[in-house]
Amino acid sequence: MNTLMKKKNESSEQLNIQLFLLCMLAALLCRRLGKISSLRIICGMLRTMIYVGVYIGWGISIYKRVIQKSVRNVLIFIAELIIFWFVVRTTKYFFTMDNQIARYLWYSYYIPMLFIPVAVLQAAFFLGKSEEYRLPKWLKGVYIPTAVLVLLVLSNDLHQLVFSFQVGSAWSDSHYTYGWGYYVVLVWEVVCALTAFVLMIYKCRHSQKKKYLPLLGIGATVLYSVLFISSVAWVQEIGGDITAVLCLFFVGILESCVRCGLIQTNTGYDQLFEVCTLGAQITDQNYNVCYASANAMPLSKKTMKDAVEKDVVIDKKTRIQNRTIRGGHVLWQEDMEDIIKLLERMEENRKTIEESNCIEQENYQTKAAINMLREKNRLFDKLQTQTAKQINLLNELLNRYEEEEELEKSRILLVKISLIGTYIKRRGNLEFIEERSKVSDVVELEACIEESFSSLRLLDIDCACSFPEGEKIYVRDAVVMYQFFENVVEKCVDSCASVWIKLRSQSEDVLFCMEIESETDLACFSEMAQYCTCEDGIWRFVFTVEKAGES
């Protein structure tokens, strides 16, 4: 089944490529036929519709493929700029008779030409960041010179620093020369594009794919632009207007970034699903199987439909469950063999107890075992839910550790794994303490932090803590303080120089103080604390918790 889906996906991708090439041939044909005066408008509009359709389709594919929301939004914005560019170009050529309006529409080309490289630079900064990441203020300032250059182009009639027109001739894109402002615009575009590409390379340095492909696209774009503005006849004849060619180049560069892994996508999920240990299947609305794990059993459509209303039991030991998802259903099988064996054993015990007049005692033991199992499952589920973030991070670090070849980087990853593992273990210990008593000595919290410090010290981070003796606090507050410490450390561990924690006793409260020296912006934690300051790279967080008496 999965082999068929792979072939289907490959066929779909080949179809998309063939459709794209067909669109380009159709656009080229329209351009050639457009030279016939009677077909100029019809072929021109048809050509525009083809290009706009291609860019809309590319934007839709980006929406489906790119995982990170911030990056996805920027790429879709770029697609919108390209469509805007083409709409302006079409309006200029086919709907404008006034020379002045046509000239300003030509100037408007430079709005997307300038903002697309800056948007790509913005996307490069978003790569690998969390969904809560916000761009630094200095990066937002990049839009200022971009906007200035746009205004410089739009106001060219006043100074002619970008395009210079001959005296006595009509001011249009037919007869002009380039001023120094044009070359400033060109250099700014290239600098932003190359900076974005270098940043993508840096953030995706572990990728083994051909990362030079976007560079070839950038080089081809610059070469074409230079040849075009140099009025090379054969370049202008083959490429036509520069708008169509540059838009194709921009999309090609971004698509190559996606293809070679510089921009992460959610492709390959079918292979991941295939090797999943859970027997599961994903179907469409008509219960046609789209994806299936390696150990998923074949199911009839009737069985799938029956599982919607209630769980379906197959061969007395396998239960099928069905949940509706967007576009279809997900079905998974649950092995009930252990439960069945337990039920059979309970039945045997019941009969034995009846025969030996010990039924009440055996029932009590069985119920106790079930309750204990339920309690263990409850505690396990609770701990898994509360440490889900760290578990996911731990899996990510383990995967990176297996792939890392440099000894020093492997050591750093191993220390981070130790730090996360320590938190999960100690967090679980606090949860078990809270099940027995709501109150704990601060020494338990101190032990948690000290064990985490042992991992941080391996990264040459200075650590120290001071806790009062004999103070009692609520375990829930200890969990809050330890979780706050872990979240802050995870955020800035790569740039952290020192960590100092102190608990100070006040009349009815315990004051929690944490000072951490780091270059990372930790302002996002300020709302969690009653007091937050930053001076010379040293962050200070303070909040109070209530003292507790004996439980």
Description:
With 551 residues, the protein is of the alpha+beta class. Helices cover 62% and strands 14% of the residues. The protein has 20 helices and 14 strands. It has helices at 2-33, 40-65, 69-94, 99-108, 110-126, 137-140, 143-154, 156-159, 180-203, 213-229, 233-239, 242-259, 269-274, 301-309, 337-356, 359-386, 388-403, 407-436, 442-457, 475-492, and strands spanning 163-164, 177-178, 280-284, 289-292, 312-314, 318-325, 328-335, 439-441, 462-466, 472-474, 496-505, 509-518, 531-535, 538-546. The strands form 4 sheets. A 5-stranded antiparallel sheet has the order 4-3-7-6-5. The protein has a 5-stranded mixed sheet with strand order 9-11-12-14-13, with helices on one face. A two-stranded antiparallel sheet has the order 1-2. Strand 6 (318-325) and strand 7 form a beta hairpin. Helix 2 runs antiparallel to helix 3 (69-94). The longest helix is centred in the first third of the chain and has 32 residues, at 2-33. The chain is flat and about 115 Å long.
| Number of structural domains | 4
Strand content: 5-15%
Radius of gyration: 32 Å
Helix content: 55-70%
| Cα distance spanning the termini | 59 Å
Low-confidence stretches: none
Q: Count of helical segments?
A: 20
Number of strands: 14
Strand neighbour order, sheet with most strands: 4-3-7-6-5
Biggest sheet record: 5 strands, antiparallel
Cα shape: flat
Structure classification = alpha+beta
Overall pLDDT score: 79
